[in-house]
Design brief:
Layout (H helix, E strand, L loop, with lengths): L6 H8 L2 H6 L15 E4 L11 E4 L4 E4 L5 E2 L1 H9 L3 H12 L8 H29 L4 H9 L4 H7 L2 E3 L5 H7 L5 H7 L2 E2 L8 E2 L4 E7 L5 E8 L8 E3 L15 H7 L6 E2 L3 H9 L5 E2 L8 H10 L4 E6 L1 H14 L10 E7 L3 H18 L2 E2 H10 L7 H15 L5 H19 L25 H4 L2 H4 L1 H19 L8 H6 L7 H10 L5 H11 L2 H9 L14 H30 L7 H19 L8 E3 L5 E3 H14 L3 H4 L2
Parallel strand pairs: 11-12, 11-13, 13-14
Antiparallel strand pairs: 1-2, 2-3, 3-4, 5-8, 6-7, 8-9, 9-10, 14-15, 16-17
Helix pairs in contact: 3-4, 5-9, 11-14, 15-16, 20-22, 20-25, 22-23, 25-26, 25-27
Length: 650
Amino acid sequence: MSLPPGFLDELRSRLSLVHVVGRKVTWDPRKSNQGKGDMWAPCPFHQEKTASFHVDDRKGFYYCFGCHEKGDAIGFVMATENLPFIDAVKLLADEAGMKLPDRDPQAQARAEKRDTLVEIMEAAARFFQMQLRAGAGQAARDYLKGRKLDGAACDRWGLGFAPASWDALREHLAGKGIAVERLVDAGLAKPSRNGKAPYDTFRNRIMFPIRDARGRCIAFGGRAMDPDDNAKYLNSPETALFDKGRTLYNVGPARAAAGKQPLIVAEGYMDVIALAEAGFGATVAPLGTAITEEQLQLMWRMSPDPIIALDGDVAGRRAALRLVDLALPLIGAGRSLRFCMMPAGQDPDDLLKSGGAPAMQKALEAALPMVDLLWDAQTEGRSFDTPEARAALDKELRDKISRISDPSLKRHYGDAIKERRWQLFNPRKPRGTWQPGLGGRRGAAPQVPVTTTRASLLATGGDRVEQNLREQVVLAVLLRFPDLTLRVEDALAEIDWRGDGHAGVADALLRHAGADPERQAELVHADAPSAALEKLAAAGHLRVVPALKGDDRDLAGICLGEELAKLLAGQGAAREIAEAMEDFAAETGEALTWRLREAARVRDQATQGQAEDTTEYEEAPNGVMMSRAERNALDGLLSQIGLSATDRNK
């Protein structure tokens, strides 16, 4: 429907977004300011405990700093009620006391055509149901009975049968005054290539009506009764009603059930019916093709963590890996996937027949997080007994993780992969949870320094003090110029923050990296740990940092790039030292000595500017001498910030 200019603006101006959203959320009274229309709540689009969903009633927009959902009142109703645009407008217009304008002739004609096609599809569905009960449907009824579907179940799902005739449906609907051209428009008939009348699309098939979220029949799927048929399953072609890449089988009932049970994504019609009949009502399936991005987004609007139930065969495995590749750039807070791989040679229907609902429930509870499936896919059946093989694995995993757009999630995936990598390469050695930046493990007994190391730089803690000071400079610059955060978010996500509360400040900066620049600083300060902000404000050495003395954004960018480069270089060396110490029991002699020496050399270069005579030095923009490796890291960070080569040398 085409709406005249100004109608939607008038509708938005009459609505209170706080009122519209308030039906779905519980406002946080500590962060919200009702008088200013500045409201906060836990996000309705993903599971969370904190209030990161923000509504600005004056501007009429909402935004979630966790999952990044955003929009206006119309978009909110479309997403939460699963309604098309015009239906959401109608619902809100009724609330606002506004009458929808008359449709323009072309839009009205299109809407009337769709309504007519829906009526034709419903008439066809009734015809197919009638045929299933008739004598011609005996073989189809026997097949369905063998799949544990009695007459009542067939009625619940609207199952039917298309007779083995070229014109049975066409003649039946013609008797009701429906022109054959409309059957072609609905995808129920196909034009003949030899000049004859159009013929029925579906013949000698069990028929599954496909309904939209509002329960309207928009297409059919047909299973062939003849085992020699060219296509075992045949779906309706694309029509004005049906876009198979944007539709899910059983979407309406599953959406209603998804609030009480996990959303399951099966492969086909029979799997969906078997699961729903066994009590797993929140089950959907794509329509004969691989899952699309639009279908993924539809699933996430129904549930933040759908479970993909795939057949336990090679094809099911391949389908899972294709879906991982599709999902990696899209996942984030409140948008994830789990994978439930059926036992070898079985699909969900087979598992239900052999073990009932308890067996299926057990399989669902054992569903793998996506990171596990990604790891298994890269390591299963491979040998990693050479450095080359391990390096290849590292590259493959880095390439996969680099596709994740959410910087915080990318960091967590990296940590999870690192833990699995340790277990693979060190199967007999226990490993605790990494404590960020300290090279130690929680729960491990503290190491007592021996005489030979007690006086070394590694044992004095001086490097930690220096890192803490650098972290303070980075955070202070970003708090002063928060718009720079978006340019260096990948680097920020890589830092193992050591300073007290620094990780919390960095997380707040990352969460609000895409916020309105005018309110960005305010949002970060409201979200970051207050104790950490107070310590930063009281840090005396920050008063002499040139980048914090004025409003020179370019100078701030250069300072930020230099400090991040130093932090990342020092952090890499610290990790190498920690890993070498943990490998002490398995690695002795010259190999360990070399590894420690190299790590210490790189660390010293990164944090104190010391190096062997063979190290090449260059002068940084602020006059400090840096190694070439450090300068390359700095150039990369400055490039992210957006400074040209000329700007860097100012």
